[in-house]
Amino acid sequence: MALQSLDIKARSATTTPSPNVRAAGAIPVAKLIDISKCIGCKACQVACMEWNDLRDDVGTNVGVYDNPRDLSDQSWTVMRFSEVEVEQGRLEWLIRKDGCMHCADPGCLKACPSPGAIVQYSNGIVDFHEEYCIGCCYCIPGCPFNIPRISKKDDKAYKCTLCSDRVGVRLEPACVKICPTGAIVFGSKVDMIHHAEGRITDLKERGYSNAGLYDPQGVGGTHVMYVLQHGDKPELYANLPKDPSISPLVGLWKGVTKPLMSLGIGLAVFAGFFHFVTAGPKEVEEEEKTD
Amino acid sequence: MSKSIQRYTARERSNHWVVAIAFVLAGLSGLALFHPAFFFLTNLFGGGPWTRILHPFIGAVMFLFFMAMAARFWRFNHVTAADRQWMARIGDVIRNRDQGLPEVGKYNAGQKYLFWILVVSVPVLLLSGIVIWQPWFAPFFPIWLLRVAVVIHALAAWIMILGIVLHVYAAIWVKGSVRAMTRGTVSEAWAKHHHRAWYREMTGK
After folding, report:
1. Across the A/B interface, how many CB contacts are shorter than 8 Å?
2. pLDDT given at position A87
3. How much is the pLDDT for B116?
4. Which of A45, A55, A139, B128 lies at a CB distance of 3.0 to 4.6 Å from B149, suitable for a disulfide?
């Protein structure tokens, strides 16, 4: 599934440089989801299923609009509906298209133990290469957004690819192409930030004084961004984390500790060897038995 | 050749070696997923997915047999005042200056501390391992617990590996020890020198 037309910026469990020779490099891309324009039609979910050949099980109605209820190996994007009263007596229906945020500093990639199972292209897309996935689930604790899902069918991890196969041939992601209100747009990250600024100005003029762009810096920024009417309260949007970052436990687990621990084991073995060749073995004199 | 003393029965030896073999396999497959430098070890187990599948089962076998072994040797591993005196002279032990060390029973203080380190780390490995056992158990635990478990699992494994490196080296270093676990016997001279209290108990001398 690797795209030979895209440079790779980072590769899981790899300590040497990734293929990165293309002179021009790639322009960082971004998908911008303007929640204030979303009508909750779920066309993006359908387009995602169509393009990626996914069919989730038909679920049951539990009295909410979320359908399917959660992300899965077959549902890489899900609309999450939140009914909130931001001010007393003023009900708002906030609909957030959930899915992979394509972090600039991806926790899944950091946590993955299998070389090349997770890659980050130089355009910023974070992609799972399932043929190298070993099904260990480490990407799940790695992710600050609770996105990867392990398939029960093949024990591989799946998530939104940001349609890397489409972007690689200069097409926009399927959800972007289908969105009927223009709530989802795609382009260079710089352009998308610029576009968001216009939307935020507009929202502020219309009374949403805290409107803002969600591009959390705790994960180095993301290549999927939201325009939020209530930019100061992202938690209103089905618990979108306010200041997400890779868990310090994952940092501890995957940071400098492991090379140091590996070194420690190696040193212990060498210490034993050199102790043997210097101090020597403990031998018991046979005559001791006759004293 | 001096007379020999029985140190381990055939059952005890078999039990020990089941744990040892399981430890080596669990250790190699675990290191494979521990750091990219060791990922090549997955080849020993039939690739990445097979390593992930086999590792927890090997670990569970190690746990079961280790607990059986720990139950057998539990009563010989209570740390005494003499053990603390022995430990205070660990520098002399390492330099092979064994004269005047306190009398040692079936196990010396180093062996006892290793025993207790393993008695703690093996169940910790099992419990933290169950939390991240994919696909059977991991889906039932919250993500914050997975994060805690992966760190604890790696740390406990590291402590255990270091302990076993020490254990294996000590067996090589102290000549005449390995046969206790391969043949079941040690020489009288070995017992008298390294485990005098146990020697007296065994021979009545």
Report:
1. 135
2. 86
3. 98
4. B128
pLDDT at A100: 98
H-helix or E-strand spanning residue B56? helix B48-73
Query: Which is catalytic among the residues B55, B167, B194, B195?
Result: B167
* Of residues B98, B143, B148, nearest to A146 (C-beta): B143
CA distance, residue A265 to nearest chain B CA (Å): 6
Contacts of B97 (CB under 8 A, 6+ apart): none
Contact B85, B162 (CB under 8 A): no
Q: Which residues from A are below 8 Å from B2, CB to CB?
A: 286, 289
pLDDT, tens digit only, all 205 positions of chain B:
568 999 999 999 999 999 999 999 999 999 999 999 999 999 999 999 999 999 999 999 999 999 999 999 999 999 999 999 999 999 999 999 998 899 999 999 999 999 999 999 999 999 999 999 999 999 999 999 999 999 999 999 999 999 999 999 999 999 999 999 999 999 999 999 999 999 999 998 8
Nearest CA among A264, A68, A208, A70 for reference residue A148: A70
Token pair listed for B199 = 């020697």
Please, what sign has the CA dihedral across residues B178, B184, B185, B186? positive
- Amino acid letter for position A223: H
Interchain proximity A13–B143, CB inside 8 Å: no
Helices (H), chain A: 43-52, 107-111, 139-142, 164-167, 174-178, 189-205, 248-254, 257-278
A233-259 exposure pattern, b = at least 16 Cβ within 10 A, e = fewer? bbebbbebbeebbbbebbebbbeebbe
Q: B35 — phi, psi (to 5°)?
A: -150, 145
Q: What pairing do the DSSP bridges indicate for beta strands A212-214 and A224-228?
A: antiparallel
Low-confidence ranges of chain A (pLDDT < 70): 1-5, 23, 286-291
Question: Does any CB of chain A come closer than 8 Å to the CB of residue B178?
Answer: no
Contact A136/B33, CB-based, under 8 Å? Answer: yes
According to the model, what pLDDT value does residue A6 have? Answer: 73
If you measure CA to CA, which chain A residue comes closest to B142?
A: A141
Residue B153 annotated to the active site = no
Contact B45, B78 (CB under 8 A): no
Q: Is A217 on the interface with B (CB under 8 A)?
A: no
DSSP label at residue A137: -
The answer to whether A282 faces chain B, any CB pair under 8 Å, is yes
Structure tokens at A139: 């990407």
What is the pTM (predicted TM-score) of this model?
A: 0.92
Q: Can you give the pLDDT at residue A1?
A: 45
Instruction: Give SS3 for A87.
Output: strand
